[in-house]
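Deliverable D4.2, example record:
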Amino acid sequence: MTVAPATTALRARTRPLRYRGPLLDVLPGGAGELSWVRGDEGLVGWGEVARFTGSGPERFAEADRWWRSVVDGLDAGSHDEVRLPGTGAVAFASFTFDGGSPGSVLVVPRVVVGRRGDRTWITEITPADSTADTGGTLPDTAPVRPGGRLRYADGDVPAHRYRSTVAEAVRRLRAGELDKAVLAHDLLAHADAPLDPRFLLRNLAGRYPTCWCFAVDGLIGATPELLLRLHGRTVESRVLAGTMWPSGDGADVAGALAGSAKDRREHAYAVDSLAASLRPLVGELQVPDAPRVLTLPNVSHLASDVRARLDADRPASLLTLLGAVHPTAAVGGTPTPDATALISEIEGLDRGRYAGPVGYVDAEGGGEVGIALRCAELTGRTARLFAGCGIVADSDPDAEVREAAAKMRAVREALEG
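Output generated by the structure prediction step:
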């Protein structure tokens, strides 16, 4: 566990900003791009004044304690002239799927620009003894650089090995060892020039405006799945599980997905998993009787929007809730302990922060966090892409390979421009 807070107390100053352009357009480039944007709303940030990094099963609790210490130490000169969710001091968050993997982070940015509805703001976070102040103006931005020609190469788990892994999981599922397992594989993309995170972010945002486009510490993606939102005492989640993709023959994908017993069963596992994890922490829990179909340009998912209310006498922060619900059956399996053990045994992949929680936390202990799907980890000229599928006893390995390819297409096309 590595904890590196600011050496002095921090000061957070939020003021209105007269800016109506796309939030992603204000990212200056080369300053540690941070993003949690959906459509015209969300947060972007750059620079860094404090960071938490950690690993292990207690990484959420450790991150929560660290963040509380940062917030409790905010200088008396901090002020918030806007007072909306996402204003004031915030930290962008990205956690590993598995506690044994290093790399879970909270990053407190130097500057944040946010928007909710028709209100836009800028937050500057500095050491309390600093005199730095932009006066609420935006910096000049460097031109966004395309990566140029891409060459693809196998990752740790190429497609043919992924098929074999799925087949082994199906064999075990049919033997009754567990009900569902989620298996992933990866792909490498090598570019001619260093990859600009803003290029990938803008392309994903343009293609998937209903997804949350995120960037934290080099992990860039667009997720359709909201793991948890906590504002005040209200908790919200969007569960996705069960997927189909267009076949090209004009078939009714939404109708077929809604009527698929296999996909509805997979979806039920994911919803039940989330509800069971939340129930001890909330006083009210509302779960839809049946899922709806969420249609994206590359795939369609079964989706359920879950709502809950925190008990007044049992307060919890977003990070505390994350520690209780991650991993859900949507990214792990059912029963979750058996599924994650199977993943560790046969997947052959260190997922890192893929399929882990990603988003932001605020000074009130709330915020928004999705699941890091449809994403790539950028390092210099290389992007590592990920995709995974939920496997049940009647899954077809060839179909699961095609589904993973359809999911990975979102990032491939965005990288290529």
